[in-house]
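Because showing beats explaining, we think one record worth quoting, sequence and backbone structure tokens together, and here it is:
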Amino acid sequence: MSTEQAWARVVAREDTDDFLFAVETTGIYCRPSCPARRPLRQNVRFFAAADEAERAGFRACRRCRPRDTTLSERARSYLDQHLSERVTLDELATAVDASPFHVQRMFVRAFGVSPRAYVEQRRLEQFAGGSSVLDAAFAAGFGSARAIYEATSKPARGTLRFALGRHRSGKLLVAATERGVCAAALGDSHEALVAELRAEFPRATLVRDDAVLHTRALDLIGTPFQLRVWRALLAIPAGQTRSYGELAAALETSPRAVARACASNRIALLIPCHRVVGHNGDLTGYRWGLARKQELLARERRGIGASGESSVRPIRTRR
């Protein structure tokens, strides 16, 4: 990205953490979305991170608080590197050189969940992400999914890579951040799928990349309770079902709470909420229709999986 491109994003007050800008006349550095009045272009410098700006002699803006964003990213990076360990809040605070209270508050503000819930989410991603998106689409056959982190977290920003493909059930779109898949959808038109993706992620820059179809990681954030329910869904064998009441009893909660967590599942190609049924075995409550839910279960019971009858392949752009 050139300095002029960065300046254009500052003028537009783009909500991004990709870079910071500093004003030489005030000695302050800010996020591009800072609500303060725009400075003169000749007084602006650009930096990749808060530490870099501070080494150059600038101090953090008190309005947009760019240091907090950097702290949250450092905390997330530390947790990603220690997923197999039990990291306490005090240990995390020491690692990023901040107080436990400040780390907790900034992390929740940035990502919508606590550090502990984030670790559970990442572990679930590893559990669910053993198959590529293609394999998951083979196994599912129907449905669409959009994982926008979760309702309480921030929409994706920066760059989203996406791929278009053909599937036996229709047109396929898969999108990913640098961390993993954040959207997967089936539809009748690639143009409509791209438009929907753009509407779902208005702050993101979309870039076509067919390699996204082979991504194995997920980028998903849910509440601790949602993660518990989704983990239970992943434990149901293909072709089998569990009632909402059975799951509720196992999780020591109510059937209604389980149903709400299933309804919030926006990556049905990977987390199989179609395997949950009513107390008498009736098919109920599937966001893409009961016919598709019935077809999904029928395909699983016939043993049609990644090596079965489905076919997914990328769409090549003509030049």
Summary: The chain has four domains: 3-64, 67-111, 131-214, 224-297. The chain has twelve helices and twelve strands.
